[in-house]
Amino acid sequence: MRIGILGNGSMAEALGGQWAKAGHELFVGGRSVERAREVGDRLGVRGGSLQDAAAFGEVVLLAVPAEAAVATVRALELGNSTLIDCTNAITHPGITLAVDAMAETISRYAGQARVVKAFNLAADSVWRRAPLSGQPLGVPICGDDQHALDQVAQLVRDLGCEPVHAGSLERARLLEATAAFAIGIWFGGGDTRGLFPPKDEAF
């Protein structure tokens, strides 16, 4: 796939690095073209402006800070690309959602782009180490377009992880709330892995 990456921070480099290794074509874009090119050089791909990255990608990863996400999307021509939102708008202390669901808000300004929420439940360090040992990490994805969901599911598998179809884009608000809930537990020293029973005993 041709993947445009909006942003040149830790999530952009972590996910982009894995997808580059998997053989995808990447273009890293940033407000600072120089920095985007530096990240691109480290990944062995091209770098340039945000609009260059948006125009390049049939799939576009939105990996800018949550507070800049809407403004970034509004400023770009995204066409009918698949737009992956991995942002979390979370306030500290208390670890609560700062705004309404980011993915739904972004979709209102994304034109014909098909928004999919994914990759928001783990930090960049997790994606850099993927695939993890043991059982494949499940990655929830929410969206309304089946082709876009299929594209993102493949990108999840390319990390050695397992896509978990979690419903429509409307359900992204639950996924974002889950991130806030889980991050609060992690900051408190807890481990979320023990919170849920096996599937056949859940209900």
Automatic annotation (TrEMBL):
Domain Pyrroline-5-carboxylate reductase catalytic N-terminal: 2-88
PANTHER family with a match to the protein in the record: DUDULIN-RELATED (PTHR14239)
Organism listed in the record: Kribbella lupini
Keywords: Oxidoreductase
Top-level taxonomy: Bacteria, Bacillati, Actinomycetota, Actinomycetes, Propionibacteriales
Keyword Plastid found: no
Origin: domain of life: Bacteria
Cross-referenced InterPro entries: NAD(P)-bd_dom_sf (IPR036291), P5C_Rdtase_cat_N (IPR028939), STEAP_metalloreductase (IPR051267)
Protein name in UniProt: NAD(P)-binding domain-containing protein
